[in-house]
Write a structure and sequence with these properties.
The structure is a single chain. This protein has 74 residues and is mainly α. The chain contains two helices and no strands. Helix 1 (12-26) packs antiparallel against helix 2 (33-65). The chain is elongated, with a radius of gyration of 16 Å.
């Protein structure tokens, strides 16, 4: 689970901004191989968190819309 430094859960928007920061850091010319791996790993964890958060929202929307049938969220 992605957390802020003060131990609060990130919003999806904050997590996407953090992914963007990791991408920008990877694009720097002076980034070391070790730093690249670290940024990549952190970015993947953030994307996993975003995907899980979006899945939760989709399930909530389906439940709200449920009246015997659910519509797929596209």
């Amino acid at each position: 689970m992605a957390k802020k430094s003060e131990d609060k859960e990130l919003t999806i928007e904050e997590a996407f901004l953090a992914v963007d920061e990791k991408i920008k850091a990877l694009e720097e010319e002076d980034v070391t191989l070790e730093q690249s791996f670290k940024f990549f790993e952190e970015g993947m964890e953030l994307l996993k968190y975003c995907n899980e958060s979006i899945d939760k929202v989709e399930k909530k929307v389906q439940k709200i819309m449920q009246d015997g049938q659910t519509e797929d969220f596209e």
